[in-house]
Structures are given as C-alpha cells and as structure tokens.
Specification:
single chain; Arc Repressor Mutant, subunit A; 6-stranded mixed β-sheet; 32 strands
C-alpha cells in the first residue's frame, strides 16, 4: 500500500504534511488536489509526495480527487516548501496562490430546524439561546460562520446545546468551486437528409411557421447556432418541441473567456538597440544557454527612458527561440495595458496570456488552464503571475522591481515576488531580469557585491521616427531639467496657492504650446485630515489610528489603509467645539484649483477613487494618450513606467509627503517616487521640464532626486 503526504487546508503549523492511505480505486500523484478526512471534518488538501511508509501507524483513506489532472509540478511543490519555511506559513497557505483560480472549496456547516419551534415553549433557555433559536427560525437555513459573526465565538457552544436539546440540526455541504469552464449549448440538425424533415418543409411555412423557420435556419448554416440566440429569436417552446421530436440536438461547447478579445492595441515600431542595450541582451542570452551558471539574476539600473523595455523584448525573443517560455511582471494592474501593447507589437497575440486580479474569476480560470496546457509562450501579469504554471520556464522579468506592490502583505503567504523569482532561478535554472531606474537599495547592494549581475544604462534614448511599420532609429537625449521650489519662500512672499509662481507660469507655457503635463500628489481625496482648531484633536480611524482623509465628492472621511468610512462631523468629540478645519491636500483639491485657474482646460484625475477597475484605468490612459486632455493629475500610479511622448512638464505639488511616515525606508520611497515621476517628462522630441515643490529642500532624498542621480542617493543612504 502507498501513502500520500498531504498539506491540508487547516492551521497546522508550517511545513507540515499528514499521512493518508491511497485507496486502490484512486490513482494519486504529487500535485493532485484531494479531499481528505480530518478529525470530524472533510478538508481539501494537496498531495506533496507518495511514500511507502506513513508518519503514523493508523491512517485514514483519501476520500476523492478534487481534480483529475495534476495541477502542480515538482518545481512548484518545492517552491511551496520553501515559501512555507521562509515566510513561516502553512504548506497549504504557501501552495494556495499556485492553485487554479476558484478551485479552493470548503466544507461549510449549516444550522436549521426540522420543525417550527415556538421559543416561548422552552423556559429553560438562556437569552443568547433564545436569540439564536429565533434567528434560525426566521432564516430557516443559516451558515454557522454567519452566526459566529452575529453572536460571537460563544455561539458555537450555544448551537451545540440547542442541537443536544433537539431544537436545531446541523448539516454540512461542500461549497462549489468559484470558477469552472464556461459551457454554452449549441443546436444542430441531427440528420440533414431526414425524410421526415423534408416532408414537413414541403407542407409549407403556414403550418407551424416558427418551427419551420428554425429548421430552415439550421439547414442553411453549416455552423452550430448558440442555444440562447435561438431561444431569443424563435421562443423557448419552439426549440423544446423540436428537441423533443428528435430533429435537433444540443451540443455543449466550452467557450474561452479571453481578456484580450476585442482589445484595440497601440502599435509600436521596432527600435534598434544601442551598444549598451546589446551588451545586456547578449549577457542574458549567454545565461539562458548556460546550464552550468551559478548566478541567474540580472539587475538593470537604467535612467527613465533608457530603453529597458527593448532589452526585455529582445531577451524574450531569444528565450522563445530557445524553446523556453517567459513571465513578465509589472507592479500595477493598470500598467499591463501598455506592456501588452509593446509585446503584441513584437509577438503573436495568440502566444500571450494575461493573469492578474483585475480579471474576472472565469477569465483567470481559463487563462490558468491554457497556460498549464502550454497554449501560451508569454505570461504578463502582476505579482501573483509569478506562480503561473509555466512549463519550460526560461525567463522571468520584473519591471520596476523596486515597487513595494511586489510584496504580498494582506494575507498568507506574505511573500516578496523578487525573492520567489530568485528561488525559481536556482531550482528551475531560469533567468531573472530585474529592471528599474531606482532599484531597491537591497537589490543594488547585491548587484555591487556581484550576487546579481549589474548593468547600468546611463543614457536616455528616444526615437527619431514614430511610424510603427518601420524600424526606428534612436538618439541620445538629455533628462528633463528639474527646478526645486522652496515653498517656504513662496509663503514669505505672499503666495498661498498650492501652485508656486514658477509652476503656474510653466503650466501656462505648456498649455499655450499645446503640450501635455502631469501633476503629481501622492494623496487622494480633498484634504489630508480634519482637525479641531480649538483642542487639536484630529478625526482618526478607529482601527488603524491614522488620520482619516476627507473626500469632498463622497462627503466622507476614509481610511486609505483599511477602508473604514465615516460621515463628516461638524463638532469635536473631545471638546465639543465647532471649529473643525480641513488641512492638507489631495488630488481632488488639485483638480479644483486647476479648474479655478484654467477653467477651459480638460483635466483627468487618476487615483484609486477615479479608477476603480481595469477598464477605468484603460479609459483614463487612452484619453490622455489620444490627447483628449492636457493635464493628468494623479497619485503614485502615474510615476510608474508610463510613456507619453507629448508630456513636457511634470509638477510635483508636495514632495514632502511620505517623509514623516514612521518607516526606515521613507526617504528611499520618496526618492524613488520623485525620480520616477520626473522621468515621465521629455520622453518625446520636445525637451522636458520638472518642477518639484517642497518645504524641505535640504532633505537628501529630495536633493538627489532633483539631481536625478541614483548613485549619489545610494552613497548618501548607505555610506
């Protein structure tokens, strides 16, 4: 007899599996999802290994296979073991992001009554027991976890008591998978040469005209016709009658939910590589074919606009020519649209998969299984795409590798994508390519210490030709000029506007030249906080203990960490004063100020309030790309990897935001944001300008960002 070591969906301690015997009726392999008994429950689990001897003397049988197919490879099982140990989570938690989307199911307990019980008949019930009994009587069938949320943890014992008394019953059901293949029924004629059908049609259309019309439609087309369409055109009863007669039949067809279907893409021309870009690409190529290498991670530190994406494209091209596949990761879902455009311009659309949380669960399910089947050579997505079931993985690219969004912080496993990719590089012998204008300090340090293979692109390049059908030549261009404005001096000289005089004049100049600008403020909403002017008490989140941000459009105070909402209060809860004032700035305030100064100018706002889903992200970007608006106001979203050739001005409203956050990396993050957003200006033929407003011009992070000198910032911080 063989035994399976299974990681179960329960809090069991990290890196722990349990032994289960394999029934003779089942064929079980490592990587299978199974259903197993666990105490009095039935749990889902993942098989990690098959052994000849169990960990314990007495074992229980695996109940069933949840999926017929093996869903996890040996590489991903080994990766899950490492994640479990390194990030101190259970094996099942570690393996969860690798499972097919929507495949996680649980056994749920439901509480009900077999008969209608009058609560008043039982005088020996406690107050809580009466409340629970009355609630179940009204709802009839209630999820036990829902009862716990309503009445607290003590409810479990209460339910047990009521079950013992015979007043309640408990049943368990398995939840259905959140996603499954999309099946659409189609209709076809069973026998096109049927004599019975011919005789029917010969009687004329007057007899059963709807049935006759349906039969004629199916005979005239060689393709299957979707059942919903026929029901809409001819009626449900018409279709059912012909089905019952046996003249037509239903055929189930699995329909692929392709996220790239009906997408319009922005074409990009092929650009000649510079000498520095060619050197990096050749180094990556040599590593792809060297099976004996000891270091498989590259770091490209390239100034904004230096052509890192071209290196990515060339590296992926060689990877595919070598018979391997690639994963490309971006820090924000909103950036997938642009990177997909670039890759589709270079590779076949049918070879590219998209995988991120912005897709529907059905789309992710279809994409995951098609990746598993080897239908795609390239996978593009956010951090979770690192776990895509890519066979023959040769290259992993992490664009803007410094971004904190690559770190999963919400739930277990709390992993960092860069570390996961590095482990993959060591186990699957793939190459990892990290790219950023302002790399993570730790990554750059490892590059200097030769742990990563460091390459530097110090020169910005741009195209001399913007025709997608032709190969574009490149030329070196300077970085945008940066001007630092001391807002303290603006106050001394009587300017209390959020725009300095120099920024306002630069905005007028940009608008008059019919060019575009980006205004950056890393705070959404209308005001940073609301505070009593009498006693100084601010309105804080009751869960996070941080100031709530006022959103004028919603007339609400919101916590940007946990989502807590609160109505605007006119009275201080501490001193009962009515002197509640608004302080600080938000993106909505910036938009309002622009509308006051430039009422005839179209303004777009891009933050988590204005863009709530992937479609709205794309709409905003497309409007700005097509020059339907001259001004884009946004938060950190606009600082990452965007390419707008007509943007000649970037204005940073307040560079100080983030410096006071109690985080030892606050200075690094401020520098990265300022450096990155400065790089959005002057990426086309026109020279760019950047205006940074600050109350702390002497701060090292702001000074080095103004100089656009990453190496100097690194020395200031580390040395």
């Amino acid at each position: 007899m063989k035994f399976a070591e299974v990681a179960v969906d329960a809090p069991t301690g990290y890196n722990r599996t349990f032994s289960f015997s394999i029934p003779t009726s089942l064929t079980v392999s490592p990587g299978h999802i199974v259903q197993v008994p666990f105490g009095s429950r039935k749990l889902q689990g993942v098989v990690f290994s098959i052994e000849s001897y169990p960990q314990v003397e007495d074992t229980r049988d695996i109940i069933a296979l949840v999926t017929e197919d093996v869903v996890l490879s040996d590489i991903h099982l080994e990766l899950a073991r490492w994640i479990s140990q390194y990030y101190m989570c259970t094996l099942f938690e570690a393996v969860t992001p690798m499972l097919p989307p929507g495949s996680r199911v649980r056994e749920k307990a439901f509480i009900s009554m077999e008969r209608d019980v009058a609560v008043g008949e039982h005088h020996n019930l406690s107050v809580l027991q009466r409340k629970v009994l009355e609630y179940v009587r009204r709802k009839r069938d209630v999820d036990q976890e829902h009862l716990v949320k309503l009445f607290g943890d003590s409810m479990r014992n209460t339910v047990k008591t009521l079950i013992t008394k015979g007043l309640l019953t408990k049943t368990t059901h398995w939840t259905k998978p959140a996603a499954r293949p999309r099946v659409i029924f189609h209709i076809r004629v069973v026998d096109r040469k049927s004599q019975e059908i011919k005789e029917w049609l010969s009687m004329g259309i007057a007899r059963r005209p709807r049935q006759t019309a349906l039969i004629q439609q199916l005979l005239e087309t060689q393709d299957l016709v979707a059942l919903p369409k026929l029901r809409k055109e001819h009626g449900y009863s018409t279709v059912k009658t012909l089905l019952d007669r046996g003249w037509i039949e239903k055929v189930s067809i699995v329909v692929d939910r392709d996220p790239l279907e009906n997408r319009v893409f922005q074409p990009f021309g092929r650009t000649q590589l510079t000498a520095d870009q060619k050197a990096i690409s050749l180094d990556v190529r040599s590593s792809l074919i060297d099976s004996n290498r000891t270091d498989g991670t590259f770091l490209i530190q390239g100034v904004t606009g230096s052509g890192k994406t071209e290196v990515y494209l060339d590296s992926v091209k060689y990877c595919l020519e070598s018979g391997k596949r690639a994963i490309i990761l971006v820090p924000e879902i909103s950036l997938t649209h642009q990177i997909i455009d670039r890759f589709i311009s270079r590779f076949d659309k049918k070879s590219i998969a998209v995988l991120h949380s912005g897709l529907s669960i059905g789309q992710r399910f279809d994409q995951w299984w098609k990746i598993k089947q080897g239908s795609y050579d390239i996978v593009i997505g956010s951090r979770s795409a690192i776990f895509a079931p890519v066979d023959k993985l040769g290259l992993v690219i992490i664009d803007e590798e410094h971004e904190w969004t690559y770190k999963q912080q919400d739930s277990n496993p709390r992993y960092h994508t860069r570390d996961v990719a590095s482990y993959l590089a060591s186990t699957s012998r793939c190459v990892v390519l990290l790219g950023s204008a302002s790399p993570d300090i730790g990554s750059y340090y490892r590059g200097l210490k030769k742990e990563f293979r460091l390459h530097i692109l110090s020169q910005r390049v741009t195209s001399e030709l913007h025709e997608p059908s032709r190969a574009r030549t490149i030329k070196n261009v300077p970085l945008a000029g940066v001007t630092l404005v001391d807002m303290r001096q603006e106050l001394v000289e009587g300017n209390r506007s959020i725009f300095s005089r120099y920024l306002r004049s630069s905005m007028i100049e940009c608008l008059n030249a019919d060019e575009q600008m980006i205004l950056f403020l890393n705070r959404r909403g209308s005001s940073s906080y609301v505070q009593c002017a009498n006693c100084g008490t601010g309105v804080k989140c009751r869960r996070c203990d941080v100031f709530l941000t006022y959103h004028k459009r919603l007339q609400l105070l919101l916590c940007h960490y946990c989502g807590y909402k609160k109505g605007l209060q006119s009275i201080c809860l501490n001193c009962r004063s009515y002197q509640m004032n608004f302080y600080g700035l938000g993106t909505q305030t910036v938009v309002d100020e622009i509308n006051n100064h430039f009422p005839d100018t179209s303004v777009l706002r891009w933050d988590r309030d204005s863009a709530t889903n992937i479609k709205s992200h794309q709409e905003i970007l497309e409007k700005f790309r097509s020059r339907k608006s001259q001004i884009l106001v946004g938060t950190q979203m606009i600082a990452k990897g965007l390419h707008f050739p007509h943007v000649t001005l970037v204005g940073v409203i307040s560079a100080d935001q983030g410096l006071t956050i109690p985080d030892y990396r606050s200075g690094e993050r401020v520098f990265q944001l300022l450096y990155q957003v400065s790089g959005r200006s002057g990426r086309g033929p026109q020279a760019g300008k950047v205006v940074i407003q600050t109350y702390q011009p002497e701060n090292y992070a702001i000074k080095t960002a103004t100089e656009q000198d990453y190496q100097k910032f690194y020395k200031e911080l580390v040395e």
